């Protein structure tokens, strides 16, 4: 036996001797040239670790590795300990646990039958057990128990014949390895062509359903025997039959019993309440009269039923005990809770925002139901879907409430200005009527008119005199969003001086907001349109005025704010992320929308006309109708939850050439200095999110995929069809009527001719409703299907028109909400003419046009060019940065620079995804630098933007490849270890400290490597510190340069803790020195993949001549799984590319008249071969040669991927080619490309026009 002290000594010397063994062997061989004698060679690391394992009592590998690590052993020793295999440990190893569960199978009755023998308790007086055959149908759970004469195959065979006499022979019989299922029992199975499948050795869990049924039967049978008396074996057999019938009758699954599933009905039970015949009545009478036979029969069935329910309850108790303790939460009335609600998002993963609240418990019916009140609604929830409010949430809510109470107290105690009181109702107008003294002598002063204005007066010249009886007030609901548009009044006449209702006594400025004193008031005035006079209602505006919600405006200085409390800081930190997202979304919205106030008067008049046109079109199309004042007030009182808000959305929309003349007549064309023709467009949009239960509506927006658009254009080019463009005007209003009752209030700017309290009743799906796009898609798809079109199985927004024989296509339609691009034969164009007559079209042209943000231009040679010149010239702007800042390549970007880079990358990614594969790789790498980019990333993004600016008209050229020779192929590549995280390390325990002269990194966790200042976040700017670093440990202090090839290296053999100091520097020569990029390369632990999918001429597969090719899809991306070598990365990229390729083959086969079935689609694709190109020789050899993938590949996950890839290529009839075997792919110009992980594709290729 090995001494423990020796083992501990071995652990101590593993680190020391393991380093010197190899040197000692070399010295020994150099001295005398003789090999080591037996037992003379020193012990190696593996032998020392094995001796430690045996000496410590055969510890587990994980525990042994921890001991070695704590003892300071070498890394090789620890790794060997983790993978150590010991024959002694293997011999004492326990068996693995069985599967906890198995997926359900769809079975039919008598398809699989399980058989087993069970021992039943016999008569009470002899104490012997009786064997019986347990037969159960796995589909219906119907059970039949037949006592056996003896334990022989003949008895089992005779018992099983009773099953076959009633139900016939099953397909499969599951038994165990018992001797009673051998011999003649097996012969009977062979004669009846029944597949007999015995279970594995000592593995009852494989037949768990049969075993559980037998256990339940024995338990019910035993409990029944305790309640009834069996004097002979006949009565005992009667109990067996009654228990069998009871279990088959009372067991329930999905509302049906086993006997109902097997026979289709429930057998009659004598004397049961469910039976109403004469015999049942006589049975009850005989039972009451004391008939012993009837009484025994009824008591036996009753005892069997009671025994079954007892066994069922006991099993439920056992399951609850095995499940472990569960915390019971008692909820009381008035308690604050959160409740769980997913709504229509049941397919999504669980997320914290599914918790709603806070809510108050108002009623309990434990343990099943708790009623809670939330936002004026009562929710019935189960206790399992509730959680009490957390301490932090409770603290924050309490803090807010306390603030409100303190403020209210201060308002009562003293005269504090600037506060808003919201808990008091607005005073009634009649309460302010002044009391007139009848004895007052003298005439009253004339009442000043409320408005003194004319349509010819400027706003600055208008005098406003408020009514002395009515205080000015403003609605709180209008304070949520400040309008950006000034509209004409409700009528063309001057507003009345004496309103009829108190709602009319509400003076509002055209903007309904506080205007900056420096703003030009003239820009706020209303434009004149012809002879119309605009009644402008100005307000006396003060920057310091605040509305208290009751009509009282208090002027005064703002109170000094107290010091920021910790709770405020906590709330700010929690909302920081959401604020950033909202800010970005708001910027995107403002980038598209137009601000009415910033326009000149000429453009304002054009947008006024656009608004009037929008309202007129909506009323004419029946989208909504205006209610009267009385009807509106009735709806506001009775159905306030059915009212939503609305707003105007103003945009500048590009105009097609054919639209210029009609728009010029309407006065909607805008002046644009950049040369592009734009029109003023207004849209009346509902705030669909404010609709009650909006989360339960279908919010899908069906949109054709980008790949489908290129597919359609390729087919149009191959078939030489004319390209058609179609756009529906007021598309949503042209659809079906809505099935629910909805109303909307007017926009804050109002609607000409209507009072601001009037409501609009929605009749059709208006813009802004959550389910608007989906309802329009359903309507239009139904119309197209009625005209003979069929939706594609691959993309529901692709509609295909076949001929009468369903073998040849006659038309294609790609649908993007209300835009179409299409083409086809005369049959197709006749359908388009029918659509033009049925719907109002905003665009109905052929040839060149814009679709989904891309310009589509057909050429004379039959090809089609797709580009985004207009977007590149207008939206892609280089970030301005000076030369001094450019030299600071590794400095962190400021928040302003990050926002600029995010905007630029958004535009670059859109262009790279849609029409420019030559920049896709660079953009993909740049996107991975967010949210912590450096200056070098801005420089690289500017280079990509300048590259686009040099050739903005570059795009995808779709070649007219003949349809009969159209094929699809894919080119894939990957690069290993060229993508990854921003920082090399990010320890939560190690931290930075900044002093006046230096930056100090404190190393709390033990480490071996020297520290680089750019390896962790939160550190200094690399261009502001010296290149010298000082590393201080508990033992030594050393100084060296961190910016070198060996700047990140092992410091010492032992792990160390301490600090690393970097001195701040302002020396220009040192600051401007180039910085080595090795610290970034070490952090690149991920791989980048890419693929290029092309349509090509079939002659390419057999010819060496140049053939036509079209780029159809491309992508550059970071591989989701980390790879161990280049082969693994190449394999993942190839699988991704071939998956996309099959989707395009599916579309090609579908339009060719193939009857595709989702189960047999691979067989249908056989007639459409393809090629897959790779530059990896190892991947090519592995896929094409007959070799075992797992034999020469260490990474078994890669071996599995390669096996899947080989099987896929074999099933779908594809061939894998190395890139040097692919001929040139374009007529007249060779294909010259660099296909690496960044997807820098096609330096020169006519497909990239």
TrEMBL record:
Mind telling me which Gene3D superfamilies this protein's record contains? Ribonuclease H-like superfamily/Ribonuclease H
Q: Which Pfam families match?
A: RVT_2 (PF07727)
Amino acid composition bias (Polar residues), ranges on this chain: 490-500
* Acidic residues compositional bias, start-end: 19-33
Where is the Integrase catalytic domain positioned along the sequence? 105-266
Q: Which GO terms describe its molecular function?
A: nucleic acid binding
Q: Which SUPFAM superfamilies match?
A: Ribonuclease H-like
**Where does the record place the region Disordered?**
18-39, 473-568
**Protein's GO biological process:** DNA integration
**At the top level of its lineage, which domain of life is listed?**
Eukaryota
Residue ranges with Basic and acidic residues bias: 473-483, 501-511, 520-537, 548-558
Q: Which InterPro entries match?
A: Integrase_cat-core, Retrovirus_Pol_polyprotein, RNaseH-like_sf, RNaseH_sf, RVT_2
**What is this protein's record name?**
Retrovirus-related Pol polyprotein from transposon RE1 (Retro element 1) (AtRE1)
């Amino acid at each position: 036996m090995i001494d423990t002290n020796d083992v501990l000594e071995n652990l101590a010397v593993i680190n020391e001797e393991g380093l010197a063994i190899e040197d000692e062997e070399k010295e020994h061989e150099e001295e005398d040239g003789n090999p080591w004698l037996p037992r003379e060679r020193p012990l190696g690391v593996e032998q020392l670790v094995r001796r430690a394992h045996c000496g410590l009592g055969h510890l587990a590998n994980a525990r042994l590795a921890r001991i070695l690590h704590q003892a300071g052993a070498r890394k090789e020793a620890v790794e060997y300990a983790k993978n150590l295999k010991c024959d002694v440990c293997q011999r004492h190893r326990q068996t693995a646990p069985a599967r906890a569960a198995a997926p359900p199978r769809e079975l039919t009755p008598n398809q699989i039958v399980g058989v087993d023998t069970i021992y039943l308790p016999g008569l009470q007086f002899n104490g012997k057990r009786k064997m019986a055959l347990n037969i159960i149908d796995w589909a219906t759970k119907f059970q039949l128990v037949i006592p056996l004469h003896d334990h022989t195959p003949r008895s089992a065979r005779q018992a099983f014949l009773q099953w076959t006499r009633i139900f016939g022979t099953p397909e499969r019989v599951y038994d165990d390895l018992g001797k009673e299922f051998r011999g003649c029992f097996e012969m009977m199975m062979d004669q009846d062509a029944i597949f007999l499948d015995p279970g594995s050795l000592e593995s009852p869990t494989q037949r768990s359903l049969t075993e559980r049924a037998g256990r339940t039967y024995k338990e019910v049978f035993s409990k029944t025997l305790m309640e009834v008396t069996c004097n002979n074996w006949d009565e005992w057999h009667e109990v067996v039959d009654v228990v069998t019938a009871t279990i088959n009758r009372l067991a329930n699954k999905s509302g049906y019993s086993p006997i109902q599933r097997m026979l289709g009905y429930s057998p009659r039970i004598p004397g049961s309440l469910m039976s109403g015949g004469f015999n049942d009545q006589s049975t009850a009478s005989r039972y009451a009269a004391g008939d012993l036979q009837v009484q025994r029969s009824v008591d036996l069935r009753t005892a069997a039923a009671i025994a079954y329910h007892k066994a069922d309850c006991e099993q439920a108790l056992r399951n609850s005990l095995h499940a472990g303790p569960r915390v019971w939460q008692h909820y009381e009335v008035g308690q604050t809770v959160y409740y769980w609600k997913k709504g229509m998002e049941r397919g999504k993963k669980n997320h914290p925002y599914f918790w709603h609240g806070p809510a108050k418990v108002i009623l309990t019916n434990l343990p099943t139901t708790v009623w809670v009140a939330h936002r004026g609604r009562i929710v019935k929830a189960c206790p399992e879907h509730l959680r009490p409010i957390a301490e932090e949430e409770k603290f924050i809510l309490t803090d807010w409430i306390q603030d409100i109470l303190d403020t209210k107290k201060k308002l009562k105690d003293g005269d504090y200005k600037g506060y808003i009181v919201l808990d008091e109702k607005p005073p009634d107008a009649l309460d302010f009527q002044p009391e007139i003294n009848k004895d007052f002598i003298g005439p009253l002063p004339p009442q000043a008119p409320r408005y003194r204005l004319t349509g010819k007066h400027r706003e600055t010249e208008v005098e406003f005199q408020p009514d002395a009886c009515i205080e000015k007030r403003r609605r709180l609901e209008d304070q949520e969003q400040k309008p950006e548009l000034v509209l004409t009044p409700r009528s063309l006449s001057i507003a009345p001086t004496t309103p009829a209702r108190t709602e009319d006594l509400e003076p509002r400025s055209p903007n309904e907001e506080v205007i900056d004193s420096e703003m030009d008031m003239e820009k706020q005035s209303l434009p004149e349109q012809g002879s119309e006079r605009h009644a402008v209602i100005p307000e006396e505006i003060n920057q310091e005025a605040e509305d208290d919600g009751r009509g009282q405006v208090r002027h005064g200085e703002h109170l000094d704010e107290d010091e920021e409390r910790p709770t405020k800081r906590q709330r700010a930190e929690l909302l920081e992320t959401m604020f950033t997202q909202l800010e970005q979304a708001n910027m995107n919205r403002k980038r598209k929308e137009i601000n009415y106030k910033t326009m000149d008067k000429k453009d304002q008049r054009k947008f006024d006309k656009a608004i009037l046109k929008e309202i007129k079109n909506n009323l004419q199309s029946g989208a909504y109708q205006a209610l009267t004042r009385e009807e509106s007030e009735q709806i506001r009182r009775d159905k306030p939850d059915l009212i939503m808000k609305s707003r105007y959305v103003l945009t500048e929309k590009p105009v097609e050439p054919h639209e210029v003349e009609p728009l010029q007549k309407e006065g909607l064309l805008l002046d644009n200095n950049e040369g592009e023709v734009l029109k003023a467009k207004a849209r009346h949009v509902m705030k669909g999110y404010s609709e009650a239960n909006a989360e339960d509506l279908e919010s899908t927006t069906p949109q054709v995929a980008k790949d489908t658009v290129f597919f359609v254009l390729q087919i149009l080019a191959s078939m030489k069809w004319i390209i058609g463009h179609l756009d529906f005007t007021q598309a949503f209003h042209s659809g079906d009527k809505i099935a629910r009752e909805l109303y909307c209030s007017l926009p804050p700017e109002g609607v000409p001719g209507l009072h601001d309290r009037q409501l609009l009743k929605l009749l059709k799906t208006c813009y802004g409703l959550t389910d608007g796009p989906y309802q329009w898609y359903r309507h239009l798809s139904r119309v197209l299907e009625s005209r003979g079109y069929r939706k594609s199985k691959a993309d529901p927004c692709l509609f295909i028109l076949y001929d009468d024989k369903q073998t040849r296509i006659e038309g294609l339609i790609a649908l993007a909400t209300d835009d179409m691009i299409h083409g086809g034969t005369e049959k197709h164009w006749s359908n388009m003419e029918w659509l033009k007559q049925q719907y109002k079209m905003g665009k109905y042209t052929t040839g060149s046009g814009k679709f989904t943000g891309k310009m589509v231009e057909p050429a004379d040679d039959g090809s089609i060019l797709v580009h985004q010149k207009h977007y590149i010239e207008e939206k892609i702007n280089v970030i301005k940065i000076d030369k001094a800042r450019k030299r600071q390549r590794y400095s962190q970007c400021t928040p302003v620079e990050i926002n600029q880079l995010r905007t630029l990358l958004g535009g670059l990614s859109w262009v790279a995804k849609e029409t420019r594969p030559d920049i896709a790789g660079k953009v993909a790498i740049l996107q991975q630098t967010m949210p912590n980019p450096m200056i070098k990333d801005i420089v690289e993004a500017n280079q990509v933007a300048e590259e686009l600016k040099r050739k903005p008209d570059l795009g995808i050229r779709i070649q007219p490849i003949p349809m009969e020779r159209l094929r699809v192929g894919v080119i894939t590549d990957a690069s290993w270890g060229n993508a990854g995280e921003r920082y090399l390390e990010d320890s939560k325990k190690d931290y930075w400290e900044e002093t006046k002269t230096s930056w100090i990194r404190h190393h709390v966790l033990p480490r071996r490597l020297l520290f680089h200042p750019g390896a962790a976040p939160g550190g200094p700017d690399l261009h502001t510190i010296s290149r010298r670093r000082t590393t201080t440990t508990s033992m030594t202090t050393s100084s060296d340069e961190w910016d070198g090839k060996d700047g990140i290296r092992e410091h010492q053999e032992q792990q160390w803790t301490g600090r690393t100091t970097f001195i701040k520097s302002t020396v220009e020569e040192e600051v401007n020195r180039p910085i080595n990029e090795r610290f970034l390369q070490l952090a690149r632990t991920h791989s980048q993949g890419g693929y290029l999918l092309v349509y090509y001429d079939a002659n390419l597969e057999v010819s060496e001549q140049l053939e036509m090719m079209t780029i159809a899809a491309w992508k550059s991306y970071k591989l989701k799984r980390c790879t161990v070598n280049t082969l693994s990365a190449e394999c993942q990229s190839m699988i991704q590319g071939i998956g996309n390729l099959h989707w395009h083959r599916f579309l090609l086969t579908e339009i060719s008249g193939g009857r595709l079935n989702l189960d047999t689609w691979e067989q249908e694709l056989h007639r459409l071969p393809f090629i897959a190109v790779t530059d990896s020789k190892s991947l090519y050899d592995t896929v094409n040669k007959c070799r075992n993938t797992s034999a020469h590949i260490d990474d078994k996950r890669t071996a599995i991927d390669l096996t899947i890839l080989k099987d896929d290529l074999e099933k779908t009839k594809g061939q894998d080619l190395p890139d040097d075997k692919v001929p040139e792919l374009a007529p007249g110009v060779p294909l010259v490309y660099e296909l690496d992980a960044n997807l820098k594709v096609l330096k020169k290729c006519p497909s990239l026009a």
